[in-house]
Amino acid sequence: MLRNWLPRQRWFAGKGRAIHRLRLVSAAELLPPGASPGLLHLLVGVDEDCYQLLLGLRAALPPALAATLIGRAERGPYTGLTVYEALGDPRLAGLLLERLRSPGTLPPLRFDRDPGAVIPAGLAARPVSGEQTNSSLVYGETYILKVFRRVGPGLNPDLELPRALAGAGCTRVPAPVAWYEAELPDSEPLTLGVLQPYLRGSADGWRLALQRLGAGTDFTEEARRLGHATAEVHSALATALPTLALGPDRTALIAAAMAARLAATAREVPELRPYAKGLRAAFDALAAGRGRTVPAQRIHGDLHLGQTLRAADGSWSLIDFEGEPARPLADRRRPEPAAKDIAGMLRSFDYAARSHHPFDPAWAESCRAAFCEGYAGPAGRDPREDSVLLRAYETDKAVYETLYEARHRPDWLHVPLAAVQRLAAPGGHPTRHPLAPPTAPDRPQPPRRPHT
Question: Cα separation of 374 and 440, whole Å?
Fold first, then answer.
């Protein structure tokens, strides 16, 4: 059943590839044997990956749960029972919250929570639609539980960093109130889920930007405040967790890795090849910075407008600190220059502008500039002043986007290619600084689907 069901799930990373090896890593019944419905927690190895599954067991599936059907067991201890996705069942989703309310172990699972947290009982559960790499449940419009799907040994940054920020007194990120892990033999614990306050009434940064574009209204003040909030988070992370100073040799290695990604992408995406030489110049300039050091710290790792929420009072929060899920966990926990997060946000403003017709280059440019200005306040330095570093990271991000769009959304390919054209030009810049010369905007056709 799982061989057929897994590839159809949005969060399954192996789409388009045959499953060669499926193995059971662990199993735990979260309800006594024979209970109806039953709730089974599985960790399943799929080739080189490990996935977390929560399966419901019933004699018959009610019509309201028809969309959650996985199949019917024909042999083994659950013979004759219907197996389904438990997170779609409000009753079983509520049981998961009860486990988080009462810390303890149910091998191999361990449930824990903040000692000061008071989690009410009986909160109604509803799944969050439209997610891709994980699954989430909202409880009573009060809490949100992120259930990680593809998991591995080690502390997930989406638990580690918000806890560190809460300890540092930073209120820009919802503090975890409860979480659960798996403890397996000869392995670090695997982070499986995190419960945080649900910021009811907050507006998703991406949707808010599109609304402003559609209404033809300004977004620069919001972008400026978002830059200020991002700098506050970076500052708190640098205070709470270790930092590094990357010397010339380490910086050269970063530049070499960027150049290698460019070369690999150019081999796969022909449209990128005419710009490869110009793009490489950004990485060569970074590698040539002999005698300089680059500060590195823990960062968000995958920052864009969709990872931000604006409250009714205009304040911004950052969410989803998991980083890029496709990268190994050890890489996602490594200190990196804050310019990586800044470059990700600058690219997101460009994506927003190009998803609207007609494309308004001035809207994107003003938002990018305002974000950097807002960031400069708490940081004490405008990130555009280090133009070599910022250009390298935005170029690397645009190359990543080019590969992603070519593979998954070819009708969006023109969006990163427009940035590629700009960044590959002599003197290509991430965004205008007051001291930088202006450049002519490019005008590709807008994409037909919203950015996610």
Answer: 25
